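Journal club prep, notes for RB
We'll compare a predicted complex against what the paper describes. Inputs for the zinc ion case:
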Amino acid sequence: MKQKVGIILAFLAFFAFIFCPNCKKEMAYADEKTEPVMAIIIDDFGGYERGGVSEMLEINVPLTCAVIPFVDHTKEDSEMAIKNGHEVILHMPMESHVNLPQSWYGPVYVKNYDTIKQATEKIDDCLKELPMAKGVNIHIGSGVSRNADLMAGIIAHLKERDIYFCDSRTHPDTKCEEACRMCNAPYLYRDVFLEPHGMKSYASAVRFLKEGASIALKRGYSVAIGHVGREGGKDTALAIKNTIKEIEDMGVRIVPLSVVNERIKNNIV
Ligand SMILES: [Zn+2]
């Protein structure tokens, strides 16, 4: 009789575990090394376009805030991001393959025909302004990111400084993967934009957040990029806030980009 009761209890516990979403979540988080993780980078902090800045910074999961150097709100946004538990990276302006107004880059940016020395000196200056930055990604950059030698010089320099690099993939012909291979650095890159091709809306951001989470479930990690200001702003911030629970219920944890970088570096996926 005692044995029968034991078997019934074991069955009940098993079914409770299978049908209880929180138990599944616990199960997914149980192994810190293999739980699927997703980083959400938010580009364009620091600039004069303030749409969604405070809403984004108030979000209750660790975002990765990419801050443009030497612009109006660089200091204020980066300090606020750290205070609110987010990660900060340098959103390094790099030249496009087409002519754009200088004001889109800010005062310091890597130019298409810079030498490696010129480019790394500019990046070092910017990192002095953002000493808390753990990584670097690209602002604009559809020209510079297609120069494998220049990118390899930049990535090797960052590697020496123990600062990670993330390819925003602002152009389909980016040579950053090749550049990372050249200097034996992990290739960290953006999987989804939350507002691709200027498709800025709440619905689109929700859709691409879920797509990012699905990639993390399949591959172990993923990287999404959204924006404050004209390209994203309040719609994107609200979409993130309202979709966090759904992403977590899928068994995916939102983490700072440095966690994804460590996964790739140590081949733990
Ligand atoms: Zn940008």
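Talking point for the session: Residues 8 and 14 are 10 Å apart (CA to CA).
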